[in-house]
Design goal:
The protein has 384 residues and is an alpha+beta fold. It has 17 helices and 7 strands.
Length: 384
């Protein structure tokens, strides 16, 4: 019998802990319509041996080539051997032909698996399903064995560190740019090699997500490095999605909203709500980013009716705010107002200008709109 349910009732951290303590073997699937994303984690006797996620589907061989860990000729040679009938995983073939050491292969695979797990650990909404069964076939090019307890401890450390980073880096779409030193006496910068590597890739155009792909490092590591460089005044961070705050309260309110987001990621909705309420006290009650943040917290707390009020007020004060309009549709659907949700998402699709991140939500909005339309029809039939 599968173990399944919504993440708001049993957090993803608790799911991993349960599978670890029960020494379960099988496949965990986690999906999030809000994020348009999903991940799969393979457990063997409670330990994680493989993981993949839709938003980062990089095949191991191609990733090793891009990182300079594997020669392209060796990669093609191993693939040719597989196509000729070698049934072993790609990683095992690469080790056999001497293209990469077993130790380096396991190090790279472990890093890839950890990034998937740490991203999933940040989800406070969505749905999980675990199917217990022998792992006869794991569709991975190589596997490792990572104690789940170690992953949980590292995830907790990262969440704590993100809470410090997020006031400066609220999301991975932030664009870093170099600061021009003032005066001719600016001395040499004493940076570590990893910091120089990231700094050399900063061009004022690429986002943190794009920089991470360029330097072939995790988004967390790049964000942490840029946070240090920004704190030292070497770079500044531009948020193309930012809604300017009133000058008198901007810094304080921005910090409070970033803190609320960090609490929400960690699953602490009570603390997130307290931070948003403090932000409302420090700014205008009609401040749109604060209202949107309030609505998101209320949704996570299972209070969709109140979330509708928050998003409606935000949309009233800024009719072209795409996030407020999209999330209003979510709150309406969650409160059973399916026809209103459809109308709201239709209005979202007609907005004249949306950020790239909002445009990326188009597929999810379309699916949700279709589902709400069907539910609305079914509700009318049932009450007809």
């Amino acid at each position: 019998m599968p173990i399944e349910g919504p993440l708001r009732e049993l957090g993803i951290h608790d799911v991993f802990q349960l599978l670890d303590l029960a020494r379960k073997t099988g496949v965990l699937k986690v999906t999030s319509e809000l994020r348009q994303n999903g991940g799969t984690v393979y457990f063997d006797n409670g330990a994680v041996i493989a993981a993949e996620i839709h938003s980062n589907p990089h095949p191991l061989g191609s990733l090793l080539v891009r990182m300079g860990k594997l020669a392209e000729a060796d990669f093609h040679r191993a693939r040719d051997m597989q196509q000729a009938g070698d049934g072993r995983r790609l990683g095992d073939v690469l080790v056999e032909i001497g293209a990469i050491s077993r130790r380096e292969l396991e190090r790279q695979v472990r890093a890839q698996v950890e990034e998937v797990i740490f991203e999933l650990m940040g989800w406070s909404e969505g749905y999980f399903s675990f199917s217990e069964a022998p792992l006869d076939q794991v569709p991975a090019q190589a596997t490792v064995r990572i104690p789940t307890e170690a992953l949980l401890m590292e995830a907790a450390r990262r969440i704590d560190e993100w809470s410090r980073i997020e006031p400066k880096i609220p999301h991975l779409g932030v664009v870093p740019r170099l600061v021009v030193p003032e005066g001719a006496d600016a001395g040499p910068m004493d940076l570590r090699p990893a910091e120089w590597e990231v700094l050399a890739a900063v061009d004022g155009r690429r986002s943190i997500r794009e920089l991470a792909a360029t330097v072939q490092r995790s988004e967390f590591d790049v964000a942490r490095t840029l946070f240090g460089l920004a704190t030292a005044g070497v770079i500044v961070l531009d948020d193309p999605q930012a809604d300017p705050l009133p000058e008198a309260v901007g810094g304080e309110v921005a910090e409070l909203l970033a803190r609320a987001d960090a609490y929400l990621i960690a699953g602490n909705t009570a603390a997130a709500l307290a931070a948003v309420e403090e932000a409302r006290d420090a700014s205008s009650n009609h401040h749109v980013p604060t209202l949107v943040s309030l609505g998101r917290v209320l949704l996570a707390m299972g209070r969709p009716g109140e979330a509708v009020d928050a998003f409606s007020e935000a949309s009233h004060h800024d009719p072209v705010d795409a996030a407020a309009r999209r999330l209003l549709g979510v709150a309406l659907a969650a409160s059973g107002q399916f026809d209103a949700a459809v109308e709201t998402w239709d209005a979202w699709s007609r907005l004249p200008a949306r950020s790239p991140d909002e445009d990326a939500q188009g597929g999810w909005v379309s699916r949700m709109r279709d589902a709400a339309r069907l539910l609305g029809q079914a509700t009318r039939v049932a009450h007809g």
